[in-house]
């Protein structure tokens, strides 16, 4: 290497591949074998390579549909992208204490970015064309994040003329038992015109989900409601939902989405909802059964950590899906991985309980590595861990909307 910034030639030499292969990985438009792609991405990280021109070209795309076959469902998430600095520590430091980390790594983060990356990685028989509406800066970290998203097959929908400043940053402190403490900067995503994207996008003949991370719900809920009227499927995850806003707008939230992802901490913000999981599930099931048409989601999920998750539907009430037993290293991206995998299957009209079983496998696997997106398991790996068969018969049953909501394919 010369004394200047690393080049694409440096990355190619470091990974032992051609410059064309590096370009294919960055642009995610030509298939590259997973082992080769991993070598290239490792070289990019090792050299701290920032492909500025490639990344900037991504943001010049119009606010339009990602290019994909109409038979492939589409998922567009709305939320912030951040660069995460993950510190592995034995425990949280005491006040005034200086603690030495076992390692500090740099990774891409943000709930919406994590959901999109996990969904895009699942693949056949549940492929999804993923994209994210976000706001990024004009610095090297933003270019790096855009290239990372491209490598994960996530299209970036951002306004080039609004690029300014730098990418949001987050500090993630991960303790020995996998618990994490996150300190992040406020996002500038409020500037992103989600409503314009909804207005200019046609969903005719497409299965397309518009998904909000909780941070964006107070700002974008009306755009989400309009998206639903236009034929989008809609979903929201609890991560980042402000408790006061949730308490005041719970009925609007439930009536605006087709899929709602809650966690135990959300229960306290729902007026009238018990805070213990079993009682909360009974309460949610009763609400689902009695809600007027259009005033309740198709499915509500409640994640329960090591106890797995539960799904609530109007037809079947509350059903539980177990979480595989794994050695948890970092819980940071587990919930986002659950949501991404669930949406991938749900967009293929899989039974909700099947979606939850596979999603629990994704959440468990995500926690076995440091960083929210470092593990992006494919369908076969998820199916094996969840105990789900991928035979032609199983896939046909799973993707039949007329099959029982309780159907679990074994």
Automatic annotation (TrEMBL):
Q: Can you provide one Gene Ontology molecular function annotated for this UniProt record?
A: kinase activity
Xref: Pfam families: LacI (PF00356), PfkB (PF00294)
Q: Where is the HTH lacI-type domain?
A: 6-60
Instruction: Cite the entry's keywords alphabetically.
Output: Kinase, Transferase
InterPro entries hit by this protein: HTH_LacI, Lambda_DNA-bd_dom_sf, PfkB_dom, Ribo/fructo_kinase, Ribokinase-like
The Gene Ontology biological process terms listed for this entry are:
phosphate-containing compound metabolic process; regulation of DNA-templated transcription
Name of the protein described by the UniProt record: Carbohydrate kinase
């Amino acid at each position: 290497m010369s004394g200047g910034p690393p080049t694409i030639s440096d990355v190619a030499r470091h990974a032992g591949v051609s410059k064309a292969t590096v370009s294919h990985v960055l642009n995610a438009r030509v298939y590259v074998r997973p082992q080769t792609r991993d070598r290239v991405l490792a070289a990019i990280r090792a050299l701290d390579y920032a492909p500025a021109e490639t990344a900037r070209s991504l943001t010049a795309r119009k606010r339009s549909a990602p290019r994909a076959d109409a038979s492939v469902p589409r998922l567009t998430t709305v939320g912030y992208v951040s660069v995460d600095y993950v510190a592995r520590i034995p425990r949280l430091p005491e006040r005034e204490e200086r603690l030495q980390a076992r390692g500090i790594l740099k990774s891409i983060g943000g709930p919406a970015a994590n959901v999109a990356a996990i969904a895009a990685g699942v693949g056949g028989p549940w492929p999804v064309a993923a994209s994210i509406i976000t706001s990024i800066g004009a610095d090297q970290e933003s270019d790096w994040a855009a290239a990372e998203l491209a490598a994960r097959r996530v299209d970036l929908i951002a306004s080039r003329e609004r690029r300014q400043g730098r990418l949001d940053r987050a500090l993630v402190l991960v303790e020995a038992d996998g618990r994490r403490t996150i300190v992040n900067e406020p996002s500038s995503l409020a500037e992103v015109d989600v409503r314009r994207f909804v207005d200019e996008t046609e969903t005719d003949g497409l299965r397309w989900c518009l998904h909000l991370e909780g941070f964006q719900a107070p700002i974008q809920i009306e755009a989400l409601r309009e998206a639903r009227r236009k034929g989008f499927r809609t979903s929201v995850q609890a991560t980042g939902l402000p408790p006061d806003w949730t308490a005041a707008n719970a009925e609007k939230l439930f009536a605006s989405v087709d899929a709602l992802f809650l966690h135990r901490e959300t229960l306290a913000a729902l007026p009238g909802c018990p805070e213990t999981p079993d009682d909360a599930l009974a309460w949610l099931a009763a609400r689902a059964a009695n809600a007027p048409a259009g005033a309740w989601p198709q499915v509500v999920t409640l994640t329960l950590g090591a106890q797995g998750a539960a799904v609530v539907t109007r037809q079947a009430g509350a059903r539980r899906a177990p979480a595989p037993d794994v050695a948890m290293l970092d819980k940071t991206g587990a919930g986002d991985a659950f949501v991404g995998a669930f949406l991938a299957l749900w967009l293929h009209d899989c039974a909700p309980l099947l979606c939850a079983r596979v999603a629990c496998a994704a959440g468990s696997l995500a926690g076995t590595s440091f960083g929210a997106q470092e593990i992006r398991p494919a369908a076969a790996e998820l199916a094996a861990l969840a105990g789900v068969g991928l035979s032609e018969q199983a896939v046909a049953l799973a993707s039949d909307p007329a099959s029982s909501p309780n159907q679990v394919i074994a």
